[in-house]
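Sample intake — PH domain-containing protein
Collected from: Pontibacter saemangeumensis
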Amino acid sequence: MNGSFEIRTAYVFGFAGNFWLLFLGISVLLWISPSFAEQGVSNLKATVLGTVAFLIGLCLRFSFHGVEVDAESGRLREFTSILGYKTGEWKPLTDLTKLRLSSYSTSSWNTPNGTSPTFRSTSTIYTITLVSEKPLTDYSISLTNRKQALHTVQALARLLHLPVEEEGIA
């Protein structure tokens, strides 16, 4: 391992990140439309609109939030990556003593018409906390996938040479 760890936590555009393939399809249709459209579609207009749709699709797919840990330099950062360009402020890792993996379940009702709930949804949130000796300097990463949370906490434990404490894992 090279002394650093990175994990994606969420898409920047939320659920809209799933529409990237639709925009790529639209761009292809716009690019080929002058060859079969008889309405006098300008080649330049079709190319520009296709390129814009293509770029929107790429931005939806390759824009995400994440956490990066650099063990060699003793720092971590929350970042936003847009098309591979990462922004975020590095913070020092202070006297870490252990990693804590915990989980909790939350449930909610779906009320599409605003008056009567139709179904209940239950989800489990897994939280990895980097616990330090100093108060109020803990840092946490929340994930919704159990397998990903276990893999992440094990990778961080190996990288940072810290013990893992599991608390109420479902």
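Post-analysis note: The radius of gyration is 22 Å.
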